[in-house]
Specification:
With 170 residues, the chain is mainly α. It has six helices and five strands.
Length: 170
């Protein structure tokens, strides 16, 4: 890539992993880092921190936030969920999060039946924005659909590469 893609539309996987990482760091719960699904190496962790720091604002949909909540609740239970959301809220403010509501009844029914409401909302957001914002996803099915529809897709591997290419220049 010649430039750093800005204002990404962020899927649940990368957003949850980032917020989980920040929770583990702030609460000094290094043992919980094994719960990371995508940010499994120090390179990937540093790359996502770097990228989110310069790509803001980030965009997502309320469905992604609900999925983040469900993932956190499954891992923490109700006891520590409040602390997770204190940290997550602070991080999302820092990332200048903007949410875009895509109403279920306005979704393309064919895409909805294939991908479900969360991924359909993300795809719809990209189309609404004239496909000018990359969709940051680790979901191969979503990435494949986006590429076929000429929607920009950003993967963690590409973010690592961007950091290597532009890290000191950004």
């Amino acid at each position: 890539m010649d430039t750093i893609p800005r204002v990404p539309i962020v899927d649940t996987g990368p957003l949850f992993d980032f917020l989980w990482l920040r929770y583990c760091e702030d609460c000094h719960c290094r043992d919980l880092l094994s719960g990371l699904r995508y940010l499994t190496s120090s390179d990937s962790r540093e790359a996502i921190r770097w990228y989110f720091g310069i790509a803001k604002p980030i965009l997502t949909c309320p469905q992604v936030i609900a999925e983040v909540h469900n993932h956190a609740m499954k891992r923490l239970g109700n006891d520590k969920l409040q602390e997770f959301w204190k940290i997550a809220h602070k991080e999302l403010i820092e990332l200048e999060l903007d949410e875009d509501l895509v109403r279920l009844l306005e979704m393309d029914s064919e895409i909805l039946c294939s991908f479900g409401p969360t991924d359909t909302a993300l795809i719809s957001m990209a189309v609404r924005r004239q496909m000018s914002h990359p969709v940051l996803t680790m979901d191969g099915k979503v990435a494949g659909h986006c590429k076929r529809k000429e929607i920009k897709v950003l993967s963690l591997g590409e973010i690592i590469h961007l950091r290597q290419q532009f890290g000191s220049k950004s």
